[in-house]
Design brief:
The two termini are about 40 Å apart. The strands form three sheets. Strands 6-7-8-3-9-10 form a six-stranded mixed sheet, with helices on both faces. A four-stranded antiparallel sheet has the order 2-1-4-5, with helices on one face. The protein is about 30% helix and about 30% strand. By secondary structure, the chain is an alpha/beta fold. The radius of gyration is 22 Å and the shape is globular.
Length: about 300
Amino acid sequence: MLQISNLTKRYKRNVALDDVTFALGKGVCGLVGENGAGKSTIMKILTRQIRQDKGSIVYEGEAWSDRHKAKVGYLPQQFDFFRNLTVWESMVYLLHVRGIAIADEKGQIAKWLDYLNLSGEAGKKIKELSGGMKQRLGIAQAFLGEPDIILLDEPTVGLDPQERLAFRNMVNEVGDNKTVLISTHILDDVESACERMVSLQGGKVMYAGSVAGFIKADKKLVYSLRIPRGELAGIGDEISIISIKRDGEELAIRFSVNNGEACRSKAPYRNGSLKKEKKSLEDAYIHHTSYSFRRQDNGR
């Protein structure tokens, strides 16, 4: 168990983390929040790149220190490496520089390259890799050596849909026996790969718990509706529009509302296409952050 308690970090007058507390056990946890919420600061503190101003981190009963680095695999937000090394050489180098002794070194490297569909690129130099390949190499090296704790900062940025799916499948397969923290703004990745999540806003923890619990706690209902383009002006303030997509002469609208029956009684919603939708994590997150912003504004 990794216990983070009352973590606070300031950069001059800017408070990056404000009394942050949450715990990480075995399994995959998503760390979500808008840009500047404090996600990368938490990652940098856990990897000992920077020090917190206040608070503590305890791992299995011991204070977090430099000697725990060997237990951590880390993908930074921007991964790059020696450009003239091949993919295979870079994995060998990283294994050795971390001081990890493995009897089956070749098997260990081949395992993670295979997981990330990089086996066929093992002989390529880093400078020859596409952005997506380089990002997958960064993910592979984070798992190298079977670390107990894996920290991934925006791991799927630059990956195409197929590569993102491969990443999710890998994390779902290997994450149960490790402590994996994924910092991301892609909520679909969290919903697909994580059982738990921590939501940050303005350097504070707004929620820490299960992904299912976060969605369930949101009481708004989500519907979809198709209307002619000219009828958009008839949509009132009783709904909160999530998305609008053009489809020929019609608009496909996805929206949230407090009372679905109240919507049905109004003219724009009585065309037969009104449909209740399953709420996604992204839907719940939008409601959650909107409510939080309103609550802060009203408190001034």
